[in-house]
Amino acid sequence: MIVVDWGTSSLRGYRLDADGGIRDQRRSDQGIAACQGRFAETLAALIDGWDGDVVLCGMIGSRNGWIELPYAPCPADAAALAAAMQPLQDPALPGRTLWFVPGVASDADAVPDVMRGEETQLIGLLALLAREPPTAEAHHVCLPGTHSKWVTLQDGRIASVATMMTGELYALLRTHSLLARLMDADDGAFDAAAFDAGVQRSGDPGGLLHHLFGVRSLGLFERLSGAAAPSYLSGLLIGHELRARALPPVVHLVGGSGLLARYAHALAALGSGVRTHPEDLAARGLYRLAQQHGGLTG
Amino acid sequence: MIVVDWGTSSLRGYRLDADGGIRDQRRSDQGIAACQGRFAETLAALIDGWDGDVVLCGMIGSRNGWIELPYAPCPADAAALAAAMQPLQDPALPGRTLWFVPGVASDADAVPDVMRGEETQLIGLLALLAREPPTAEAHHVCLPGTHSKWVTLQDGRIASVATMMTGELYALLRTHSLLARLMDADDGAFDAAAFDAGVQRSGDPGGLLHHLFGVRSLGLFERLSGAAAPSYLSGLLIGHELRARALPPVVHLVGGSGLLARYAHALAALGSGVRTHPEDLAARGLYRLAQQHGGLTG
């Protein structure tokens, strides 16, 4: 079986064996933003030599992707997502069926929230957690990234989703703002002390819009160097993200980036424990969805 | 007497009569970012035909300006700022002395804060307020802008300064973010209902980093149009700015931009009264500083 996680900026394919183990994997930078609508050719190249049907998740199933799937509502479990998968056949991929997994929408809040792609990692995490003694407590999951996702898992289902624009705001401020001029052009080494100072500062009164200006004024008074300022800014933003939430005793962190260590560090500083999980939960989740769906070949 | 408010992006000159009344005024877009170090020529052109010494405030007295003045510490009154003014003579402006007004720094908070230029508007406001029955209460002043300044005036002095990066963040998100793609290219008409909804939303749990993503998800579900989204975003940011502060019963709003009406509207929604003051308080403040300093000709 072949499973594919196809996001805005990256494309990952996994060839799985009958038990869901990863037999082979391929990565490319041909995210949907890069491949300019040449979806069939891009996929055919990625999975060349691999046989069978394909299960796909991520932004490939969005308005800017190959086909647009409506979001599945919360609470959503593997059975619900598998039932909502949509098939497609394409002449460039003869003899195969492509199955697209829907994203998930949450209306736990006054304003709706959504994800596309992360839901398969969460289905994978639910499969892992199902091996542990059952609990009536919810699991709280954070998937750091350009847009970090906070997800509540309860009773084997994805119960709610909340998105924080922390990573994108960091990139905007780092690149285009007045603060950018005070920072060294290269990120350089991560400065743990400056990061901690930012996390600490995020707990002061005044709010994020005020604390951001501190990057400038600390620089003016030579209390923050251009090399340390990016780490301080990162701590400030992640600190605000975390403090805006009612932090549970344990947070499950999912992802592969260096961001994970920063979140783990900040969560520890704020008194939460952490369990980390690798990004290839996506392959595990897609495998589970394919099993639930049945009828795939490969 | 000639007074000049010279900021990063604008230049304003006023010719005052002996009582401080504005006899004549000239504006230009030759802020310090535009005039590329040609300060003497730019000023000579602006004040051509006007006689006398010149008092200057704003970023012209900063590291990127003509000369760099250290910040005067809070609490600061007209006498302290006048005493800290620094003179300069330039061959391109024969027979005149130029007097530069320092900015003001505040260490009321754990992180220092600063302003350059706004302090003269506040000296002008203090002169206005001095005509009213004296009060032991502080006056709370907001100067909206790219970086809005919140200032406390007490006992005839500038007691503290806090800067909020609200306007700059709006511009960054409006121009460079993922949210920008969901908004019409032109700002179009101000949408009061969308602005109000943003101010309202800023009071919900989740924090600014989460609320920003709502601009996207409301758009996805067709609950916010591309025309209304900029007003919603503006309400969200201004709402967060205001809620991060302990709002007093009355806020003095100073400025000339359309932003003032938005702040007045949001403050009213949050239960604060408003007194508005025009931007030419700067001329009044510079006049008062010149009087305090004495010895100017013109």
TrEMBL record, chains A, B:
Pfam families named among the record's database cross-references: DGOK
InterPro entries to which the protein is assigned, alphabetical: DGOK, DGOK_C, DGOK_N
GO terms of molecular function: 2-dehydro-3-deoxygalactonokinase activity
Any one of the GO BP annotations: D-galactonate catabolic process
Signal peptide segment: none
Protein name: 2-dehydro-3-deoxygalactonokinase
